[in-house]
Amino acid sequence: MKYPALVNFMHVLPELEQFDCIIDARSESEYALDHIPGAINCPVLNDEERILVGTTYKQVNAFEAKKIGAALVSKNIARHIETLWLDKPRDWKPLVYCWRGGNRSGSLAHVLAKIGWPAIQLDGGYKAYRAHVSSALEDPPRHDFRVICGTTGSGKSRLLEVLASIGAQVLDLEKLAAHRGSVLGNLPSQPQPSQKMFETLIWQALRKFDPARPVFVESESKKVGNLRVPGAVMEKMRQSPCVSLNLSRQNRVRLLMEDYEHFTNSPETLNTQLDCLVKLHGRDKIDRWHQLANSGQMPNLVEELLADHYDPAYVRSIDRNFIQFGQAQIVELPDIGSSDFMAAATALHGQHAG
User: Fold this and answer.
1) pLDDT tens per residue, range 207-226
2) Same domain for 307 and 333?
3) Rounded-to-integer distance, Cα 182 and Cα 169, Å
4) Of 118, 136, 154, which residue sits at a domain end?
5) Engineering a disulfide at 247: which of 106, 196, 321, 333 sits with its beta carbon 3.0 to 4.6 angstroms away?
6) Cβ atoms within 10 A of the Cβ of 309, count?
7) Torsion of Cα atoms, 86 then 87 then 93 then 95, to 10°
8) How far is CA 113 from CA 23, 39, 77, 174, 232, in A?
9) Smallest Cα–Cα separation from 323: which of 219, 173, 211?
10) What percent of the chain has pLDDT over 90?
């Protein structure tokens, strides 16, 4: 094969994990929005430089823009080689891509190949990769989902975490979305990924699962925070067998106090989120919840939120949205200790391992 070789994504896909390095040659903002899993960002033009070249192209002419761009690209490629790849052996095999497989990845792949490395350039670039992900999620693999259902605070996310730790296949949509899935579910220390990145993470997880083994997933709604679960994945989940996780309300309050400690320590932030529920519950009730938060009566507030908001919403939606919930396997959690979740996870994993 002559290098740099221009290869389309379907030929690259089976060997995606075999490359020694996947190099995203786009700018830092393009990379942050979404990228091929495992790729590192080595811009041949950063955001400011792209603006400069583009402005020169529009306001002066293409020739002047190309001169400026060539100088910047050369400097950036030289810096990447000096700081990242000088120690790489002759058989080091990189995959390089940009937006459409054009000049940016072409320039970098050309230089790497001239050095002597077997560089592969992705034909069609990120755009071809993204088209594949979108198509794959419209017809996802036929995995055998087991949907973990349960009222808010029953420990669904904790159970998934423990299941993953003992080797079960888990699609943790809330973890991938960096959100706990309710009006109070945002994680203050971790912003949500873009919609495209969320879909990339789901695609990457699904493609690695063994279709002969079940995949445990939580009974999410169509949106996790600001992100949408792909429609075909959601439809598959809603048709799948269910596991109903039961925990007493007293223990659910304790668990939520642990999981939402950031709200306990910041009533102002909590009250801002509670204001989103005014249309559902009226100003008087929200003001009462504000008072409970401001006076430090968090257990009472959590109890009322479960009784008046979360539990009724769950009852209204679960049977309608998850058609096999009526035949769900019941799992009773006696407490919220690590041993309780380990026992439940071990039993579930053992039942479905074959």
Assistant:
1) 999 999 999 999 999 999 89
2) yes
3) 24
4) 136
5) 333
6) 20
7) -50
8) 14, 19, 13, 41, 41
9) 219
10) 84
Provide the annotated active-site residues. Answer: 98
- Helices marked H in 188-337 — which ranges? 195-208, 231-238, 249-259, 261-264, 267-274, 278-294, 298-305, 311-321
Q: Is the peptide bond before 299 cis (omega within 30 degrees of 0)?
A: no
Residues 24, 83: one domain?
yes
Distance CA 218, CA 205 (A): 15
Print the domain residue range for 237: 140-352
C-alpha to C-alpha distance for 274 and 293, rounded to whole angstroms: 10
DSSP state of 179: B
Q: Do residue 257 and residue 220 come from a single domain?
A: yes
Global model pTM greater than 0.85: yes
Query: Tens digits of per-residue pLDDT, 101-136?
Result: 999 999 999 999 999 999 999 999 999 999 999 999
Question: Do 168 and 118 have their domain in common?
Answer: no
Distance between CA atoms of residues 354 and 347, nearest Å: 13
Residues 104, 25 contacting (CB under 8 angstroms): yes
Asked if residue 153 and residue 132 are part of one domain, the reply reads no
**pLDDT averaged over the chain?**
93
Q: How many domains does one find in the chain? A: 2
| CATH code where residue 21 lies | 3.40.250.10
Higher pLDDT, 262 or 303: 303
Taking 70 as the threshold, does the pLDDT of residue 304 lie above it?
A: yes
Q: Which of 84, 105, 136 is where one domain is finished? A: 136
